[in-house]
Write a structure and sequence with these properties.
147 residues; alpha/beta; Transcription Regulator spoIIAA; five-stranded mixed β-sheet; 29% helix
Length: 147
């Protein structure tokens, strides 16, 4: 691996990092029964910083969801479950969990939270796709894809 060595013609570069959040995530895929398609599960854990301090956390979450949904395993995901049960979230206006590709194709997205955090997430994400039972979320994604 070579290191960048500035010379008199190069700009004065400053290294930056894209490690903007302490939140972690894990990715999973599953086959939709009796269909040649995949569903995805992305699990977030850690602490989402309060209010506007969490804007980088929101950006990180959005990046990771979009990145995951744009990959092919060998095909792209047709539905998504986002699991926030291990995410300590109080409040933040910038949280957005709807991946561009899945939203554009009108494919199902379900968000799973703990009952203790339901009201906090409801305030920013609404109730339509919000659940406290991951099995219900999986079932709804599967049923939506079969229709």
């Amino acid at each position: 691996m070579s290191q960048f060595k500035p010379n008199r013609y190069s700009p004065n570069l400053m290294e930056v990092t894209l490690n903007i959040s302490q939140i972690e995530c894990k990715y999973y895929v599953w086959e939709i029964p009796k269909m040649p398609t995949l569903g995805g599960l992305i699990v977030f854990s850690g602490t989402y910083l309060y209010g506007s301090a969490g804007s980088d956390d929101a950006l990180f979450i959005k990046w990771r969801i979009n990145e995951f949904c744009e990959l092919e395993f060998p095909q792209k995901l047709s539905g998504l479950v986002v699991d926030f049960r291990s995410l300590d979230y109080q409040w933040g206006d910038d949280l957005d969990v709807y991946p561009q590709e899945i939203r554009r194709l009108r494919q199902p997205v379900r968000i799973v939270v703990t009952s203790e955090r339901y009201e906090a997430f409801k305030g920013v994400l609404g109730e339509q796709e919000l659940h406290t039972d991951i099995e219900v979320a999986f079932a709804q994604v599967i049923e939506a894809l079969k229709c």
